Amino acid sequence: MEKRDRKKINMTFDKGVVVPSLIFIIGVCIFAVIFPTAINNFLNQVKDVVFVNLNWVYVWCVTIFVIFLVFLMFSRYGKIRLGNNDSKPEHSFFSWIAMLFAAGMGIGLMYFSVAEPMQHYTSEAFANNNSINRAKNAQLYTFFHWGIHAWAIYGLVGLTLAYFSYRYRLPLSLRSCLYPLLKNKINGKWGSLIDVFALCSTFFGITTTLGFGVVQINSGLVKLNILPESSFIYQVIIVLILVSCSVISATSGVNKGIKLLSNINILAAVALMLFVLFLGPTGYLIGSFTNGLGNYVNSFFDLTFNTHVYEEETLPWFYNWTILYWAWWISWSPFVGIFMARISKGRTIKEFIAAVLILPTAFNFIWMSVFGNSAIWIDLNETGGALSDMVSDPDSLLFQFFEYLPLTGLLSYLSISIIMIFFVTSADSGIMVMNSISSQNAANPPKWQMVFWGTLLAVLALMLLNAGGLQALQTMTLLTALPFAVIMLLFAISLMKALVIDQDYYERGMSVSTIPWSGEFWKQRLKQIVSFKDRDAVDKFIMEDVQQAFNELKEEFENNGISVKVNRYQNPVKLVFEIKHDIVNDFTYGVKSQKHVVSEFLVDDDNLPEMPTKNSYYPKSFFGDSREGYDVQYFTKNELISDVLKHYERFVKIVAEESNEMFISAHSNEIKD
Question: Can you tell me where the transmembrane regions are (predicted)?
């Protein structure tokens, strides 16, 4: 009985992923706790070297992601569903968008809503500009950092994961994204290495974000006089309460806790934004949003490719903002991508990309315009620069901003509530994703595993927060973005390769070889279909069956006054039926031995045609022009003769048309002496 009970509570962890991940996660956190300053200084030096010398890698990678997704959205591949062709979405459109948004931006949207525009506005990089241009720049660069480029990073990972998980029925794991390139090797050490990277990246990203989120929550509660001070003991209490809620939400599943909290949060965020819009300088905000949107559209390509190489005074700003943001979004993309994929089954590729690129981007633009432009307007017109003086304290800047609006208390309470829910929705999504990665997307993982990841998050976040090691962990997370950006390029290649195969599978018609079939020789043809030929068998078919057909056809052509040559070649074996012409191009119809590598599934499956090796051969037709030939192994002698005549009839009709003279002539375009 005891043995049976132990089996029932057996974990679903993949030890090849979990053990090395935990060793690395705990080891890094311990070093960051013991030597926070030294580790942070060292990692910052490495980051500076990477950002200064390899910033173009980030720029090009993110640009390629945007172009690739836009191409897919408008291509014929956009109609393909993330699942079977008859799959239906599991979540309503509103709930789907709410969950995408909550996981993708979360606390960051609250933390930077006022802080980022104000920091761009006061940045020394733009100090030479007047206040109006600095305000425009602040909005433009905030749009750039929180717009289409950020969501393209998330979208590529999410789309690739969803496609291979629901279309190819592979595990919801990053290793699955490389299936077309690695095939079954994804189940080996390379696949495990990718998942270890994803698990560590997800853990570090969530840990640092939650750590900084706790500080902002603590600061807000002090502003509201709910807590007497910002101290570690209160941060411990906040973390314990919110992580407990996150674990409860994660264990209840996507359809319950996560969806409910995401829906509540998006509605609360919209309510807060409308309050600020109507309590602040409404006309100015609507006008500045319109102006900013036009400025973003007009500057899109310049922003995308700008490396500031000719503007040395702005280079430090460029490294610390744009490149840091691209690295941050990339480092977060395994977590957000897996969560996106998990909730997107049944959507079409076009629907997924359009929703991911456009809707969250539009909301971010409105949000950042309302909060950021309100803060800049208040700083210019009402405070005499008081908000500018606080840009070094982003934790409390949002709440200080509310001090200059009516209903300050209501806005602050609502903001604290939203930040807390964002905290929970980010943490519960992260816990669910980490459990999914660590258990290879097992169907029913035990709930204690969710508790384990939640507890580990809370303990390590608090340790780092107390020791001042969060900054080091964040820096290391940014550094991991560089290799993962290259891996994401491989994701794009894999996805494109798979989509081409997918489209070809559903659009491919019957083989040309089967067109003349009448059923007369069905037994013989079935035998041919279920057997594969080696090279000798194909060479024999060409030199006997094809030779006989060509010879009979040659004799009949010559009876009609047309001279024909039948040429034989070796290595590879091929036979060519050729009619020479003086003025027009020659008519050529040939058959050659063609090698074909078959799928391993065909070799291994006992209920498919027997195939001793992966290499097969078949007789393939070819022509005098660049048209693609086809398999002729099923043709009888008369059918092969008929096929040659069909091509000859096409040839005669083309050369008979006066409009084709210059194109079909072999000599008319030559320069004569």
Answer: 21-43, 55-74, 94-114, 143-166, 193-212, 232-254, 266-286, 323-341, 353-378, 404-427, 448-469, 481-500
Handedness of CA 150, 153, 154, 159 (dihedral sign): positive
Start-to-end CA span in the chain (Å): 101
Same domain, 84 and 200: yes
**Residues of the chain where predicted confidence (pLDDT) is lower than 50:** 1-7, 666-673
Asked whether the whole model's pTM tops 0.85, one would answer no
Does some domain include residue 571? Answer: yes
Q: Please, are residues 602 and 637 in contact by the beta-carbon 8 Å criterion?
A: no
- The CATH number that applies at residue 384 is 1.20.1740
Cα–Cα–Cα angle for 437, 262, 84, rounded to 5 degrees: 55
Strands (E) across 414-541 are located at: none
Burial label for 78, CB within 10 Å (0-12, 13-18, 19+), is middle
What is d(CA 11, CA 607) in angstroms, rounded to the nearest whole number?
A: 35
Q: Looking at residue 247, what is its pLDDT? A: 83
Question: Cα–Cα distances in Å, from 409 out to 257, 419, 497?
Answer: 28, 15, 55
What domain range includes position 584? Answer: 522-664
Reference 363, options 260, 270, 299, 280; nearest CA is 270
For residue 582, the model assigns a pLDDT of: 74
3-state secondary structure of 631: strand
Nearest to 464 by CA among 134, 139, 210: 210
| Residue 346 · residue 89 · CB < 8 Å | yes
Res 620: pLDDT:
92
3-state per-residue secondary structure call for 253-291: CHHHHHHHHHHHHHHHHHHHHHHHHHHCCHHHHHHHHHH
| Range 220-233 burial, b when 16+ CB lie within 10 A, else e | bbbbeeebeebeee
| Domains: count for the chain | 2
Q: Which residues have a Cβ under 8 Å from the Cβ of 202 and sit 6 or more positions away?
A: 334, 335, 338, 430, 433, 434, 437
Residue 70, CB-side half-sphere exposure with 13 Å CA sphere: 9
Same domain assignment for residues 346 and 450: yes
How far is it, in rounded angstroms, from Cα 426 to Cα 242? 11
Quick one: residue 627, left, alpha or beta (phi over 0 = left, psi -120 to 50 = alpha)? beta
| Burial class of 518 by CB neighbour count within 10 A (0 to 12, 13 to 18, 19+) | exposed
Residues 466 and 556 in one domain: no
Q: Are 174 and 195 in contact (CB under 8 A)?
A: yes
| Local structure of residue 13 (DSSP, 8 states) | -
Predicted confidence at residue 144, as pLDDT, reads 95
The residue among 156, 179, 155 whose CA lies nearest residue 167 is 179
Beta-strand ranges (E) seen in 116-261 are: none
Q: Are 469 and 29 in contact (CB under 8 A)?
A: yes
Same domain, 99 and 215: yes
Q: What angle do CA 131, 371, 138 make, to 5 degrees?
A: 35
Please tell me whether the peptide bond between 572 and the residue prior to it is cis, using omega within 30 degrees of 0. Answer: yes
**What separation in angstroms does the CA of 410 have from each of 39, 273, 275, 281, 375?**
42, 13, 10, 18, 18
pLDDT on residue 407: 87
Nearest to 138 by CA among 150, 148, 151, 125: 125
Q: Is 198 helix (H, G, I), strand (E, B) or coil?
A: helix
